[in-house]
Automatic annotation (TrEMBL):
GO terms for biological process: methylation. This is Demethylmenaquinone methyltransferase. It comes from the Bacteria. The keyword Methyltransferase applies. InterPro entries: Methyltransf_25, SAM-dependent_MTases_sf. Keywords: Methyltransferase, Transferase. Its EC number is 2.1.1.163.
Amino acid sequence: MTAQQPGAETVPDAMWSPALARGLIRDDVMRSMRYCDGFTDLLGLAAPTRPSLAQRFMDSPTVAALYERFWRPVMIAMMRLHGISIDAERQKASDALQLGGDQRVLDVACGPGNFTGFFADQLSGDGFVIGLDKSVAMMERAVRDNSNARAVYMRADALNVPFNSGAFDVVCCFAALHLVPEPISVLHEMIRVLSPGGRIAVMTTYGRESLLIRKALELGAEMCGVQVFDRTTVPAFFAAAGLTDIDQQLRGVSQFVMARRPERESDAWYTRSARWRARSKSIGF
């Protein structure tokens, strides 16, 4: 029998992806669910928060339209300071996460779905990717530009991920963690929904070792509501949560951090993670 290539099966083989994805939603969230022109809205008329300048920027329909063509390439060039292409970036992430088969993948703060759609092409069988974002504009752009039989887009809050614990084989957040409020709380939620043995990956900012560069980055970031991470915060949080195989790559003013949740673990990880989360909130991080 000839091996089937990822994404090569007929559409009916993947038609159950939306139903499978909705099956992972927590019962307490289901009553707020509604379907909106290609994506599932789990926020509805939730009380609005006070967004940062960066968040308001990402909520703009104009920004959503220009994100992939202009703004993201510039951002990646600034973060990495070398000529890696967007396609190469996505392929590198896919390889690192060992995507394939019937995995359940969650792409947190997915924006217009640039990674979500690409990851969906790597899967087969019952595999699917959920792209989660709080911005209506980004959800609409994701549906328009990165629709895929295995990509399911849901509007939800990364601070309160609406899925059952241990629901996903892979959880990731690329070029977005620094844009969300309380990023440590977001990491906590990402680990909560990761299944034992699953992989987690984050690509975010890095303040570098130079005091001058770090202060300049922090000043600009503070004005825009963007977080700048040092080299220890994300790996240390992963370690405190009991994750293993932690790997960090520093490139330019960005970092790529990946880890695995152990197959067997005690519930102590949740307590340790919650303590980190509470401590980080007390210092405004």
